[in-house]
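Human: My hope is that you can spare some time for a protein that puzzles me. I am handing you a single protein, as its sequence and its fold in token form. Could you go through the record with me and say what the backbone is doing? Take your time, and here it is.
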Amino acid sequence: MSNNLPDIIRDFARVPADIVKQAAEFQPAILADVAGRRGAMHGRIKPLHPRMKLAGTAITVEVRPGDNLMIHAAIALAKPGDVLVVDGKGDQTSALMGTIMMTACRQLGIAGVVLDGAARDSLEIDEMDYPVFSVGTNPNGPTKNVGGRIGHPVCVGGVTVYPGDFVIGDADGVVVVEREKIEALLPLASKKVKDEAARIAAIKTGDTAAKWLTAALRSAGVLQEGESL
């Protein structure tokens, strides 16, 4: 059935803007934890500068390594608040995007870019303070000759991303949460933030012991029953 789908899927459901705004208040690490410690892309995908942050809904793009034709098409189709999520096959032999394309993205209200591939013009992009996450940089430019797909599921940094999913990134990396699940995770994320703040406050008063540790060591067979550290 999927073979009958067009290469470009223009319309798909997105996370509502108010939910994106609420979810963007949390660290990606918090959302990954409450999502079952999953959804985090491979650490090879990093921000061009640690201060960069992004949050929005995924518009997914699949390209052939070193060719950015479909990224140009995706920019033309993207809506404000979208994040370009590009399956570039992890290729680092040439850049898929640079200053000109990033400037267009910012002008159009695209919330950021995630590339499983390389970028270039990194210093200029840093000066723009536009959030770009990639596997690295390369000064080589791309070709614009090969077709690909937009709006289909892609695998980026080892994570399957569907169009419309929630995407968030900071200095730690990028986390993706399924569109259908993100709203239900918000109360859990809020509770985790409060619980962690309380634990940090307790540690600062001298309560440094991890109370779960002994039981976990026994369960793992490191300690025998009745033993302790």
User: Anything to note?
Assistant: The longest helix spans residues 182-204. Residues 2-183 form a domain with the Glucose Oxidase; domain 1 fold (CATH 3.50.30.40). Residues 85 and 114 are 5 Å apart (CA to CA). The helical segments are 17-23, 28-34, 69-77, 99-107, 122-128, 182-204, 213-219.
